[in-house]
Amino acid sequence: MSIQILSPRITVVKPWISLAVKEKLIHGFFFLNGILSVIVLLGIFALLVFTSIPAFQEINVGSFLFGLEWNPTSYVKEQYGIIPMLVSTFMVTLGALVIAVPLGIGTAAYLSDVASPRVREIAKPIVEILAGIPSVVIGFLGIVLVGPILAKVFGTHNGLNALNGSVLLAVMALPTIVSISEDAISNVPKSYDQASLALGASKWQTVIKVKIPAALSGIIAACMLGMGRAVGETMTVLMATGCAPAMPESFLGPVRTLTSSIAIELGEVAYNTTHYYALFALGLVLFIMTFLVNMTSDIILHKYEKVNR
Amino acid sequence: MNTMIKEKKSNQKNVEQEVISAELEENNMKVRVENFNFYYDTTQALKDINLEIKANSVVGIIGPSGCGKSTFLRCFNRMNDTISSIRYEGKIRIDEKNIFDDNLDVVDLRRNVGMVFQKSNPFPKSIFENIAYGLKINGIKDKNFIAQKVEESLKNAALWDEIKDRLHKSAFALSGGQQQRLCIARALAIEPEVLLLDEPASALDPIATAKIEELIHELKKKYTILIVTHNMQQAARVSDYTAFFMLGELIECDETNKIFTNPSKKITEDYVTGRFG
Ligand SMILES: Nc1ncnc2c1ncn2[C@@H]1O[C@H](COP(=O)(O)OP(=O)(O)O)[C@@H](O)[C@H]1O
Ligand SMILES: [Mg+2]
Question: Which of A186, A242, B21, B107 could be stapled to A160 by a disulfide with Cβ–Cβ 3.0 to 4.6 Å?
Fold first, then answer.
């Protein structure tokens, strides 16, 4: 039998502009978009730098970075030390990570490997929706729910303290950590599971000893992203941590993070004063911190994608 | 009268002897598959399989692709259990114990029935850790014992000499053939009695394949081996018995020599001579 072609031959339709030009236009469009976001980022950075500079005509950089007291409205001597706020930020963030990381990885492992497909289909979207709860609402829960519980458990006067902030930030970081970790764990090749199960390992042993180590860089990136959110979060910590501008004493005492300080004071400060510029300097410190966290997580995530290909 | 008694006695003796030899034969059977059916949801993948396997023998499983070879192999360590909506009927006995019994521990079964997969699948860990893994999850903590066992398994998998200087390097740095032998070593480390090999050499070059085949020859002294292969010559080279499957049915199983020179079914002959498949 010979091959027969009965239908008419196809005719190629030429587009009104050549493909090469079209390619170039599309390329240009996306290039512009990319450039624009870089410009915005650089713009914010430049703005923060330039508005911070006047602050350092009055404040010694050393006493800003290493000063132990923040009291810009003192009648005796104005103090611009950011250490109490840095310590507060680290405490609240660290506390949040200590709570959220084990819980998040455990949940991710459960969802990816142990839960039945139906449970996973229901639970994962719910966890992701958690990410959309406004921070004001979480802060409110901190005041009316978490605070009183903490006060009762630890017998303190009130529950507005660093621990409260950590608990709330943990709740806020969990969706990111669970969602991205779950993706990372699910993306571990099935052949590893098979090998592990065939050696007599249980599902949990397989997840903990094979899959989590194999997905580790993805999980670390997930935690870093969660942390980035915790460092930059303002409203929740403002509402739940008591906000005393002194050096924090313990997790059960009030603390005041970088973000809360900016939010509280920027509304009241007189325009173009040293205090005003100092708040922008705080913003610059915060910007650099979150930028570093996000960049680190991005680098780790990238490395992880390469390894898995 | 006298002679009658004598006759009776000798008869009895004969019967006794028969019983004993039958028992011997039975005891020598490591694996026994009885009226076994397997279903993926509604499609039947294995149909009424009956098969007996002698201890320390190699059984080659051949047949066109999709005939159920892998499915069959994965029944022996119940790896199919990880797939939802599967169903089986009948029995598979290993050392006379039905592996589908309710009170059988799957972990014990899998420790006793090792498996090597078609595509080598070492863990993203060091060579040492790959082999130590099976020991560690089975609760062994003694470091010296683990090290000793790792060395022994690698030697038994004919890999030790090639990699002894880089035990703590990533397993991914090994060649395909070495990775597959590493997977065999990993299976050997937990001392199984039955080994399941699913096309273990299909992704390997001829030299690596020859090494694996040589290894199988050695291993059968200690293990009972089921090997799936799509390579007729390989089946002829490595196996003592060959089982020919088609469309989920066991067409025939006999001594390899017989299957390849004088099979009892026409269709087997057609397949092994390459007339289809
Ligand atoms: N997980 C599965 N779900 C449903 N059907 C399957 C699954 N795995 C295999 N099958 C089907 O079972 C039959 C036997 O497959 P398999 O045992 O892999 O064959 P072989 O290894 O001989 O090539 C095929 O028809 C295949 O499509
Ligand atoms: Mg197969």
Answer: A242
